[in-house]
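Form 7-S
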Amino acid sequence: EERISLADPEWSDVHVVTGALKLFFRELPEPLVPYRLFDPFIKAIKLPDPQEQVERVAELVQSLPPANYATLRYLLAHLCRVMERVDVNRMTRQNISIVFGPTLLRPERELGSLAAGMAHQNQAVELLLAHFDRIF
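Output:
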Protein backbone atom coordinates (compact mmCIF):
# COMPACT_ATOMS: atom_id res chain seq x y z
CA GLU A 1 0.00 0.00 0.00
CA GLU A 2 1.47 3.31 -1.09
CA ARG A 3 1.33 6.14 1.43
CA ILE A 4 1.26 9.76 0.35
CA SER A 5 1.71 12.94 2.27
CA LEU A 6 -0.41 15.91 1.31
CA ALA A 7 2.39 18.07 2.71
CA ASP A 8 4.58 17.09 -0.27
CA PRO A 9 5.06 19.97 -2.74
CA GLU A 10 3.41 18.01 -5.58
CA TRP A 11 0.08 18.34 -3.74
CA SER A 12 0.33 22.10 -3.16
CA ASP A 13 -1.34 22.87 -6.51
CA VAL A 14 -5.11 22.80 -5.99
CA HIS A 15 -5.56 21.64 -9.60
CA VAL A 16 -3.65 18.44 -8.85
CA VAL A 17 -5.81 17.71 -5.82
CA THR A 18 -9.01 18.53 -7.71
CA GLY A 19 -7.89 16.38 -10.64
CA ALA A 20 -7.19 13.47 -8.31
CA LEU A 21 -10.60 13.88 -6.66
CA LYS A 22 -12.38 13.97 -10.03
CA LEU A 23 -10.41 10.92 -11.19
CA PHE A 24 -11.39 9.03 -8.06
CA PHE A 25 -15.09 9.67 -8.66
CA ARG A 26 -14.83 9.01 -12.40
CA GLU A 27 -13.12 5.65 -11.81
CA LEU A 28 -15.77 4.34 -9.42
CA PRO A 29 -17.56 1.31 -10.89
CA GLU A 30 -20.78 3.30 -10.61
CA PRO A 31 -21.07 7.08 -10.21
CA LEU A 32 -21.92 8.65 -6.88
CA VAL A 33 -25.45 9.15 -8.22
CA PRO A 34 -26.20 5.57 -9.31
CA TYR A 35 -27.08 4.81 -12.91
CA ARG A 36 -30.66 3.95 -11.97
CA LEU A 37 -31.19 7.54 -10.80
CA PHE A 38 -29.69 9.27 -13.84
CA ASP A 39 -32.93 9.51 -15.84
CA PRO A 40 -35.04 10.54 -12.82
CA PHE A 41 -32.52 13.31 -12.01
CA ILE A 42 -32.61 14.60 -15.57
CA LYS A 43 -36.42 14.49 -15.61
CA ALA A 44 -36.47 16.41 -12.33
CA ILE A 45 -34.31 19.25 -13.60
CA LYS A 46 -36.47 19.51 -16.72
CA LEU A 47 -39.61 20.17 -14.68
CA PRO A 48 -41.00 23.64 -15.48
CA ASP A 49 -41.53 24.67 -11.84
CA PRO A 50 -38.27 25.43 -9.97
CA GLN A 51 -39.88 24.58 -6.62
CA GLU A 52 -40.94 21.20 -7.98
CA GLN A 53 -37.42 20.62 -9.34
CA VAL A 54 -35.93 21.09 -5.87
CA GLU A 55 -38.54 18.91 -4.19
CA ARG A 56 -38.09 16.07 -6.69
CA VAL A 57 -34.28 16.23 -6.53
CA ALA A 58 -34.47 16.21 -2.71
CA GLU A 59 -36.58 13.04 -2.88
CA LEU A 60 -34.06 11.44 -5.23
CA VAL A 61 -31.14 12.40 -2.99
CA GLN A 62 -32.95 10.89 0.01
CA SER A 63 -33.27 7.63 -1.95
CA LEU A 64 -29.49 7.31 -2.41
CA PRO A 65 -27.72 4.48 -0.61
CA PRO A 66 -26.45 5.78 2.77
CA ALA A 67 -22.77 5.83 1.73
CA ASN A 68 -23.56 7.66 -1.51
CA TYR A 69 -25.76 10.15 0.33
CA ALA A 70 -23.11 10.89 2.96
CA THR A 71 -20.33 11.23 0.38
CA LEU A 72 -22.39 13.46 -1.91
CA ARG A 73 -23.44 15.64 1.01
CA TYR A 74 -19.86 16.01 2.25
CA LEU A 75 -18.49 16.77 -1.22
CA LEU A 76 -21.20 19.31 -2.05
CA ALA A 77 -20.78 21.00 1.35
CA HIS A 78 -17.10 21.40 0.53
CA LEU A 79 -17.90 22.74 -2.95
CA CYS A 80 -20.29 25.25 -1.37
CA ARG A 81 -17.36 26.46 0.75
CA VAL A 82 -15.25 26.72 -2.42
CA MET A 83 -17.98 28.91 -3.96
CA GLU A 84 -17.81 31.25 -0.97
CA ARG A 85 -14.29 32.18 -2.15
CA VAL A 86 -15.37 32.95 -5.74
CA ASP A 87 -13.59 36.32 -5.57
CA VAL A 88 -10.28 34.48 -5.18
CA ASN A 89 -10.78 31.21 -7.08
CA ARG A 90 -13.35 32.19 -9.76
CA MET A 91 -15.22 28.97 -9.04
CA THR A 92 -18.83 29.97 -9.49
CA ARG A 93 -21.65 27.50 -9.06
CA GLN A 94 -21.77 27.11 -12.83
CA ASN A 95 -18.00 26.50 -13.10
CA ILE A 96 -18.07 23.89 -10.34
CA SER A 97 -21.03 22.22 -12.02
CA ILE A 98 -19.16 22.04 -15.32
CA VAL A 99 -16.19 20.47 -13.57
CA PHE A 100 -18.08 17.95 -11.42
CA GLY A 101 -21.39 17.37 -13.26
CA PRO A 102 -20.20 14.64 -15.65
CA THR A 103 -18.17 13.00 -12.89
CA LEU A 104 -20.91 12.68 -10.27
CA LEU A 105 -23.89 12.00 -12.52
CA ARG A 106 -23.55 10.06 -15.74
CA PRO A 107 -25.61 7.61 -17.78
CA GLU A 108 -24.68 3.96 -17.94
CA ARG A 109 -24.48 4.22 -21.73
CA GLU A 110 -23.43 7.34 -23.57
CA LEU A 111 -26.29 9.47 -24.82
CA GLY A 112 -26.78 10.41 -28.47
CA SER A 113 -25.94 14.06 -27.88
CA LEU A 114 -22.96 14.32 -25.59
CA ALA A 115 -23.24 18.11 -25.26
CA ALA A 116 -26.93 18.00 -24.32
CA GLY A 117 -26.31 15.23 -21.81
CA MET A 118 -23.47 17.13 -20.17
CA ALA A 119 -25.60 20.28 -19.96
CA HIS A 120 -28.23 18.36 -18.02
CA GLN A 121 -25.62 16.79 -15.75
CA ASN A 122 -24.21 20.23 -15.05
CA GLN A 123 -27.68 21.65 -14.36
CA ALA A 124 -28.36 18.86 -11.89
CA VAL A 125 -25.17 19.58 -9.93
CA GLU A 126 -25.87 23.30 -10.12
CA LEU A 127 -29.31 22.69 -8.59
CA LEU A 128 -27.78 20.56 -5.84
CA LEU A 129 -25.35 23.35 -4.99
CA ALA A 130 -27.88 26.17 -5.26
CA HIS A 131 -30.33 24.46 -2.92
CA PHE A 132 -27.94 22.46 -0.76
CA ASP A 133 -29.64 23.37 2.53
CA ARG A 134 -33.10 22.44 1.27
CA ILE A 135 -32.00 19.20 -0.39
CA PHE A 136 -29.82 17.86 2.41
